[in-house]
């Protein structure tokens, strides 16, 4: 069978949200007052229009604290995710993220505490857990398991052995 093209993120504005335990609260304008966005188990392969969609759906997109994008077809960590400064939970497991370096983008999120990336090709990389913990020292839960003091120590040792400090190059002024 032929794979169907992924629906654009803009389709989300016409989708009926899945029922949760509590009813969704809405503002006078009809936008949702939630701080969570669960878009798991879709076929999203990119997040273009994501911020536009989020601002159409949510009354306070800047308060977004939890984004679940697990089990999609994302191949990278879209920079749009780094614009939600209140993000504390980000689920990206079960996607197609190829490069461990993608994790670096998340270092700008001051409140990120819980992150999942298992089930992506990057999980196979040597030093996967250590790399993520070095890059994101504020994360306290990674791939659904708590980050221990021992994890931090292992990550630091791994970092000293594997990540070369950047050399400062002095440019020669050629006149």
From TrEMBL:
Keyword S-adenosyl-L-methionine set for record: no
Subcellular location: Cytoplasm
Primary location: cytoplasm
One Pfam family matching this protein: LRR_9
InterPro entries xref list: Leu-rich_rpt (IPR001611), LRR_dom_sf (IPR032675)
Gene3D superfamilies membership: Ribonuclease Inhibitor
Gene Ontology CC terms: cytoplasm
Positions of the UniProt region annotated as Disordered: 1-28
Alphabetic keyword roster: Cytoplasm, Leucine-rich repeat, Repeat
Protein's name according to its UniProt entry: Leucine-rich repeat-containing protein 51
Protein source organism: Equus asinus (Donkey)
